Each structure stands twice: as structure tokens, then as C-alpha cells.
Amino acid sequence: MSGPRLLLIAGTHGNEVNAPWLFKQWSKESGLIDTYGIETERVLGNPEALSVCKRYLDMDLNRCFRPDLLESTSSPLREVLRARELLNLYGPRGMSPCNMAIDFHSTTSAMGSSVVIYGRRYCDLAFAALFQSCLGLPVYLHEGDQAEKGFLVEQWPCGLVIEIGPVPQMVLDCGIISQTRLVLSACFELIAAVRNGRQIFPDCLVVHRHVKSIDFPRDKQGDITSYIHPERQGSDWRPIRQGDSLFMGFNDEPVKFDEQDSFSPVFINEAAYCEKHIAMSLTKREVWNLDKDWENSLCSIVCS
Amino acid sequence: MSGPRLLLIAGTHGNEVNAPWLFKQWSKESGLIDTYGIETERVLGNPEALSVCKRYLDMDLNRCFRPDLLESTSSPLREVLRARELLNLYGPRGMSPCNMAIDFHSTTSAMGSSVVIYGRRYCDLAFAALFQSCLGLPVYLHEGDQAEKGFLVEQWPCGLVIEIGPVPQMVLDCGIISQTRLVLSACFELIAAVRNGRQIFPDCLVVHRHVKSIDFPRDKQGDITSYIHPERQGSDWRPIRQGDSLFMGFNDEPVKFDEQDSFSPVFINEAAYCEKHIAMSLTKREVWNLDKDWENSLCSIVCS
């Protein structure tokens, strides 16, 4: 029986150190995680940034996989060069081609462990549904965001991001390492079960669909004037409704949430998103029935 | 009545953003904190590092106040230049001289709010005792550490560091801001009371005296092989005894604490200390009687 070729990436952001550390231990001790015989490539996304403890050197690597950047022959940005290199090595038409990719991240937000998918590719939806069914992970569907594009996993036929938090940047944390290992193990179990035709898909997928991101309140100079309200801090996934406290400063009443719809915020106060002017992202929780075409799409990749 | 000239520093480390943010709000809204008429200079320690979200550019500014570095005329390190500049501006013999300094920091360790003093200067001990008596803050006495020297506040006749955590680097956090503001307000109250001769000093000071720092277990390549044990993570100040779990890896039993003496660890898993090869620092908790000479020393500075 053939199978997928799986690319596992850690350290796409050089200051997220837990998955890279786990990968290193795994390379020293191959039995640490059972791969069920699945062919796997493990790679550090941005080793140069990792070596200097920075998220990135010139540009966020996980925003560099945009066609315009990848196709431009003149870009001097080191992360764009690295994006091309990763594709040349492990891309679907690379030297050691992979058809599935899982990119391991951590966050300072209190999101626990979650799956992030980019757009509605059938195979991603099916794979996310399996993670949800197996580990109970919430799924954040990122789509329709013109400001944030060019994610790594979009370049592989099937691919998703695992986000685990909360953890400060540059901190090795027992809980985060343990969660990362758990998700990694589950990943192989799930793919192996699909390959063997033994996987039972759930009936539905709960998605948190990205609607928009909101920035901190700022003054005319662009300086942040209010911080995340204590009732919101650490409250990722918990619905926010009109009139709920959102931000807080010293001299005013709390800034209240002022939309008629309710939303579930994610990436609340993620350290790296402040520079992107994102205080949190708002999602709608929706329950989608699983489609047989999703399963077929994932199965065709896993059994290719 | 005359009084002290107080230097308040925020952002000595450019990725510790809460105190700098609070200082900015305070500069816009002078009534935010009651200074009790005490003459105050407020300054960002390392604005250049802050603007690029880094702890430092060339060298940790809070290790640059070493005589050999300050006196060398040839150092090209930007933080050494900044250290000289701060002394030229606000040092005891500077253009706008100050005789007390308080340096506001944050930490990823779960230390809560604490006072750090460097060595046993009488005035520092007395001032720390006042903070402890007023707010219940633990006091970490850093001394006798040949590897870590050149702290900013040592250059002022009286000076201490306030550490507040846990908070990730680069995250504005409601609790940290609120704690920083509380300590800042208390600082003015305490100095004003000393100046007015109305301050009652406590009978004793509980110090956590620095004994030594310990590194993560590492392999021959220098790579970390074990992380902080779950029982230690977040357990700053809580005593550790022989046989307690200290570190944890995948393939071994936990690394146990193996000293006959018990210690109280601090700065457990501080993100910035990994590069200094410090997994935590071990302290001895001691109760010292307050000495009248300490009070006199502080009073003479406050009423100078």
C-alpha cells in the first residue's frame, strides 16, 4: 500500500520554540512518536530566525507564500528565499515532494490547542474534522482576509496549522510540549486509519469562521490607548455580545463591544499580532455537516 | 523642605512593554499617579530596542553599568553608549541629577510583583522593607553573582528594580499594568511619608538571598535536553527540597533536586535568561531585623 508523504514543520516563527525542541528530541530518539510507517519529512521552517530568537528576519515567513513574492525573481527578503527553498525541497513538485503539510505553532493567546485551516479545501475540512473528533480541538477557518495572505500550508495539496497556547515566546513549557506531542501522535494515528480505510468520520464539523480582525484603540499618533479588558483577556473562543467589555484604558469607561451580532474572538492579545494591528480576530461559530466529497478528497491524498 | 530627585525607568528591556505604556499614558494625563510633589524624571531605558521590539540591540542594557564598560572610551556597543548617556543625563553627577532610581521590569516567570535589590546598601534594604510592609512584596537580594553584573540601579545612591509577572514579552496585559501602577503609586506614598518623617518602618525584612543560578540540563552540543518540571513551572518562591522534581525530559526519570539544603527558586523559566544559561535562581529565605542605620541611610537620601 502506498501512502501520503507528510511534511511536518516547526519553527516557522523563530521565537516559537516548543515544537522545534520536540522535533530535535524526536530526531535523537526516533521511537518518541509512532509514525505508523508514514513517510515523513521534518523540517525547521526558519532556522536562521530561530538561531537569533526572532519571529523572522525580514518578513513573516508564514506570509511569504504569496504567488507574487514566490514568482518574483528579485526579492531580497530572506524569508521569501526560504519559502522558495522549502517549496523546491518539499513542495508538491519539489525534490522530495510531499502532499500533506502540518505546521506547528504556538501562541501567547489562551486558545489551548486548535487547528487552523485556510479556506475551504475539502481535504483540509475533512482532516480538521478528524482532529476535532479525535481530540476535541476547535477549528479556526481563516478566509476572506485580504490583509493576511500567503500562508505556508496553502502551497501543499492538503495542509493545516496547529496552534498551541498560551505560552510566552522563547519559553519551553512542559504543557505546550506535551500538547504538541499529543497532536503529533494523533496526526499519524488519523492518517494511518484513513490509509487503512478504518477511519470513521464524524457527522459534522464545528468551525469558527473568520469574519474580521479588530485593532486596539489608537490615538492620532497610532499609539495604543487601551488594553484588552480583563473580562476578555484569556477568554478566547468565549462569545462576546453587544455591550460586553472589550478594551480598557485609564480615563474612560471600558470600550464596549458594539455589534449586534455575537462573535467568538480568537488570538486575543497574541504578542506577534500587535504589529499587524490585530488585537483579536472575530469568528462565527457554525456547525457544518460533513460532506462525502470532503472524505473522498482526503482519502485520495492519503492513499495516493 | 527639600526632597529626593527620583528617576523612574521603564523599558530598560525593549520587549517589556507594560511599564513603557503606562509611562506614556501618565505623560498624557499627569494626574494618573499622585507624585506627592516629589521631583521626578521619567525615562525610557532603551527606546531604540523598544522601537524594534527587542530586549536589546547589542548587549543587555541592564548589564552595561559595569565600570570597565562605562569607562572604556572605545566600546561600540549601543547599550553601553546609552548607559553613559543615562548617567550623563540623570546620574548623581549628571545634568539633571537624581539620587534615587526605580527600574520597572516584567518577567515571564510567575513571580507576581517583587522587589529586586543588588547588594546590601542600607538605603536599598530600608526602601525594600517599606515596599514589603506596604504591599507585601517579596524581596530578591541579588549578590555575589560574578556572571551577572552591571545593573542600572547600582549607579544611583539608592535604587531598586520592580519585577512584575508573569507576562509574555511584547504583550500589554491588564493585570501587569494595574500592578505596575499600584507599585508606582506606593513608591510616591512611601517616599513622601519618609520625607515627612511619618513613615513607620517594619521590624524586619524577609529577604530571598541569591545563592546561585542553575542551568537546564544540556547535551554535549549545548542543547537543552530537559524542560522545567510541571511541578516547578509557575512555582516561584515555593521551597524546593532534596528529591523534588526539577526538570523533565522524555526518556528519563525526572531530574530531581539533589542538594541537602532547601531553596526558594525565582525567575523560573524566564524567557530572557535561557541565553544566559539560567533556568532558575536559587535563594535562601531569611528574616533580618531592621537596622536603624538602614532607616537613617534612606532618610538622609530622601531628605537630602
Describe what you observe in this structure:
2 copies of one chain form a homodimer. The first copy, chain A, has helices spanning 18-28, 47-51, 67-71, 78-90, 122-135, 174-195, 292-302, and strands spanning 5-10, 39-44, 100-106, 113-118, 139-142, 158-164, 204-214, 227-228, 245-248, 255-256, 264-266, 280-289. In chain A, α5 (122-135) crosses α6 and α5 crosses α7 (292-302). The model of chain A has no long low-confidence stretch (mean pLDDT 96). The first copy, chain A, starts with a strand and ends with a helix. In chain A, the strands form 2 sheets. A 9-stranded mixed β-sheet of chain A has the order 2-1-3-6-4-5-7-12-11. A 3-stranded antiparallel β-sheet of chain A has the order 8-9-10, with no helix packed on it. By secondary structure, chain A is of the alpha/beta class. In chain A, β9 and β10 (255-256) form a beta hairpin. Chain A is globular. Helices cover 27% and strands 22% of the residues of chain A. The A-B interface holds A 21, 24-25, 29, 32, 53-54, 108, 166-175, 177, 216, 223-225, 227-230, 233, 248-251, 269, 271-272, 274-275 and B 21, 24-25, 29, 32, 53-54, 108, 166-175, 177, 216, 223-225, 227-230, 233, 248-251, 269, 271-272, 274-275.
* Shape descriptor of chain A: globular
Q: What class, by secondary structure content of chain A?
A: alpha/beta
**Main sheet properties of chain A:** 9 strands, mixed
**Helix content estimate of chain A:** 25-40%
The SSE string of chain A, one letter per element, is EHEHHHEEHEEHEEEEEEH
Please tell me the overall pLDDT of chain A.
96
